[in-house]
Amino acid sequence: MRYWRHYPKFLQIILLMLMIFTLVSFSSVIAGVSVTSMFDVSLQDIASASPDSLPKVIAATQYVQAIVSLFTFCFSALLFAYLTHPEPINYLGLRKPEKPINIVIVVLLLASFMPIVNQLGSWLQHIDFGAQAKASFEHNEMMMKTLMRGTTPMDFAIHLVVFALIPAIGEELLFRGVIMRISYSNSQNIHFAILIAAAIFGIAHGSVYNFLPIMLMGVLLGYIYYLSGSIWLSILAHFMNNALAALGIFLINTKSVSEEVGTAENFPWYVLVVSLGLFVAAYSLLRKNATPLPPDWSDDFKGERQTS
Fold first, then answer.
1. Is 90 exceeded by the pLDDT of residue 44?
2. This prediction's pTM
3. pLDDT value at position 306?
């Protein structure tokens, strides 16, 4: 088998893009064929899902979301790594964290960063990027709240899997495991590689209002991966971010908290100052306990002679 690591990097990028497009198309076909028999709803019902939709339509839409996310991110990254390198697990950075203390540090780092990035997102919503951008943002917000409108523990468990666990694993494997690695192998500059992967991560979420907060979150996830040497810790941080957002919506749905508290988008200045201080402290601890990726971590032929 001739692995794709033998091909020029630009050709690997083209192959990755073609693979993602193919798997997205395939996932749409799979979801479209199976959803009708499984949920007794039409694709038109899913396309027009709204807060007034029947529970089975919401369940079908969640199912489609999970299938598309799995194929677009997780399967794309896993298949690309398998075809590119004889050690796909190592290629993707799926290594056990060397220092367990970094797990605790990453939790503190993410928890302190969330108020800052959420507040930034709230401020950006007051900027006029045009009627179309605003309408698209509001539609996406409405759809997310619609898809997470349940009030039972089972509903919340489904939300965690579909909107937190699957995206955390798949998006980290693709954006940090593959795209960040390719960017670093081309530039040999870790900061550039982290920024490029984070920018593509932000663009992929498709909202001008959310681009900067999501990109900054991507930057943090990139540094977590780099400083810990394990993509499992960036997956953990990504999952925490999504899970806490899902928890906020769930608590609003059950009327346990107000919408203002559940969305956690507006904070007093002193909360932001404390969060920033804790973030700096947690990041300093992560650097102090760093087990970073080595300079040659993206070398596809490390330890062996390249053959033609």
1. no
2. 0.94
3. 52
To the nearest whole percent, how much of the chain has pLDDT over 90? 73
Q: Which helix (H) or strand (E) holds 251?
A: helix 231-253
DSSP alpha helix (H) spans, 70-128:
76-84, 88-91, 101-124
Sign of the dihedral defined by the CA atoms of residues 27, 9, 90, 216, in that order? negative
Residue appearing with tokens 């193919």: 22
Amino acid at 152: T
Collect contacts of 238-243 with beta carbons under 8 A, ≥24 apart: 238/167, 238/168, 238/171, 238/172, 239/164, 239/165, 239/168, 239/169, 240/107, 240/110, 240/111, 241/110, 241/114, 241/217, 242/163, 242/164, 242/167, 242/168, 243/160, 243/164
Radius of gyration of the chain (CA): 20
- CB neighbours of 294 closer than 8 A, spacing ≥ 6? none
pLDDT class for 1, splitting at 50, 70, 90? confident
- Cβ neighbours of residue 308 closer than 8 Å, sequence gap 6 or more: 6
The predicted model gives 139-165 an average pLDDT of: 91
Is 308's pLDDT higher than 60?
no
Helix, strand, coil in percent for the chain, rounding step 5: 75, 0, 25
- pLDDT 10s digits, 157-216: 999 999 999 999 999 999 999 999 999 999 999 999 999 999 999 999 878 999 999 999
The whole-angstrom separation of Cα 272 and Cα 145 is 26
Average pLDDT over the chain reads: 92
Which residues in 147-175 are b (16+ Cβ under 10 Å) and which e? bbbbeeeebbebbbebbbbbbbbbbbbbb
* Cβ pair 79, 176 in contact under 8 A: no
Q: Quick check: 170 and 69 in contact, CB under 8 A?
A: yes
3-class DSSP state for residue 35?
helix
Delimit the domains of the chain by residue range: 1-91, 96-295
